[in-house]
């Protein structure tokens, strides 16, 4: 945006042209003076030619209107004449700047110094034949500045200052820019405050804002808005201006003491409140921001029952330090005090702070659960005996009602019982330390009749007695053929399940002519050879019986049979071949019990498998016997077939060829039997009932809803064949009326084979 320059009003274009002419004249005069100096005669190398070009820099004013081109200067050369002409090249040559034959330079366009402040060009001088008369010479056209740009604030400004800051404290530096030439008054700026001067100052040249006084108070006013003006021409009225707003926030410091909101507090607390819980919060009033608060609330004098803690909001949490008991004390009264660390003095609210308050705690009575006399009970019980009085578990009702207490043990399988009235413990059965060395259970105490209940842990330690026999512990014992008398062929030891430290002693139950036992007095003994001369060819077996005593009270002993092998050994007594001993070490009762159980289970499984096999074998196939007919009996709870009179005889088609039955697809249960050589009226009924009973008890059979029972009669049957495959019903002389006597189950069979005089057809269906 163009605006009229105050500088131009004071000077005018005529003054500029005069200054330009004066500068050119001075330049030419100085050039001629230099060229006329005598050359140095002593050194031809330093000889200079006379300078032909006669000009210096050219100047043009920015933003000058160009309704027509205007003259700014002339190119001069000592070689110019009537037949010469000038040519210029470079930035803006022949477009912005033009030159005529006489060297006059004209400007054809409006120029802007802020876009380009100088132009670099070069000039040449030619004769009429376009032959270069003067060598190329460079020159510069400078664009002079006018005040055509206002100051600009390129960003927004925000600042903060702590309250109570000293006078003159720097707040922020505000800067503006001006596109005009900074080396002239056009680009020099001056800063002033249009608003906010009551609390802040600004440096006219640098734009630094500082505090005017030291009484800034955030609690009174937390922020200020300052309006800054920047003006060029060093602040003259003719200069351009720009303004900006600066927001200055006053930051907080701890200059207010925290106070209580009232002078007394009353709180009610149930007596069953747990230790460490919060009773309530005593709110503090503090005008400072929370990050600057630093209150410390204390109970004075200190209390063993209550304490103060700082909350997340920096208030005071009243905490329970020790459990309460309404029956012991029903109310408490004490004082709380507040103070602050890192407090800026003098404080703003020094005249009326409440830093001391009275607190009253009222304890509320509640129905409490029974209390045991101990947190855990420990008793000792000797194993393998019944004890009527192990000890007493005691609890009481802490309330004033002092209700009666009833005791019980929740674990129904516990070997320990309790008297429900007195809490006396006793054994229900004998204890065995080797099975369970420590019994832990809970006793429940409940207020009668239906009051509160509580639990306590009871630990019963089982005291050991010497009730287990020692057991021999030994690795392989053998004697070598080359062993001599006195050789130790092995070391034996023992173990004992009892807790007491054993003092084992070992002896030979029967005197032995080959071996002896020597006690080492360290719970071990050596087996020593009495003589040598043992051989693998000797058919005798060597066995010794070792007696062991544990030395307890009362002492327990055991006898163990120990076989000794005869081996062939090398020089290091490493056996290479041995003869197995006939007898082995004795097997304990605890080892025999699982072995007998396994054998019993195995025998039962074999018997069940044999029974299953026998049931399957009872369903015998006919082999290559002749099959004549299929007899089908439908159960009353069948699959819901509509036609229960249908009988399938297609299964008999291939039986004569391969001795088997060719069945249709689909699961069926068949029991195939051979009919006895003779049959009477009741034999078939018995046979069918037997087969039906076998099918009912056969667990391997698939439980279909239809029972198929087939009776087959071979060619050797005296009763003949019941099959109707080879003969029609009219040609048969057999009488099947007896089937009607067998009951409702054989009604369908009787109708099938019975004689119906009204029918004239040969078909059975």
From TrEMBL:
Keyword Cell membrane (UniProt): yes
PROSITE patterns: CADHERIN_1, CADHERIN_2
GO biological process: adherens junction organization; calcium-dependent cell-cell adhesion via plasma membrane cell adhesion molecules; cell migration; cell morphogenesis; cell-cell adhesion mediated by cadherin; cell-cell junction assembly; homophilic cell adhesion via plasma membrane adhesion molecules; morphogenesis of an epithelium
Pfam families reported in the protein's UniProt record: CADH_Y-type_LIR (PF01049), Cadherin (PF00028)
Entry superkingdom: Eukaryota
Signal peptide: 1-31
Keywords: Calcium, Cell adhesion, Cell junction, Cell membrane, Cleavage on pair of basic residues, Glycoprotein, Membrane, Metal-binding, Repeat, Signal, Transmembrane, Transmembrane helix
SMART domains (alphabetical): CA
GO cellular component terms given for this protein: adherens junction; bicellular tight junction; catenin complex
Function in brief: Cadherins are calcium-dependent cell adhesion proteins.
Protein name: Cadherin-5
Species classification: Eukaryota, Metazoa, Chordata, Craniata, Vertebrata
